[in-house]
Amino acid sequence: MEDQEAKSIIEALLFMAGEPVTLDSIRKIIEIDKYNTERLVKELINTYSINNSGLFIVEVAEGYQMVTNPACAPWVRKLLATAVPKKL
Known about the structure:
alpha+beta; two-stranded antiparallel sheet
């Protein structure tokens, strides 16, 4: 599996999970070794941080989670205050 494909899968997993996902869980799902899984997650963390994206990946509760950028909080609050259906 190419790095970019694995990163895309990791992003999708973290986005859909809605809660922290352990490195071991990610590793088992994408079927690559622990070292490369950790390397890819760290690269994603750096990419989101450097790009100052609306989303970040953070290490929390012995796992990783996709979260909104705190700088976007005022707009996220506005969205949450509306009656938006909770669908993807």
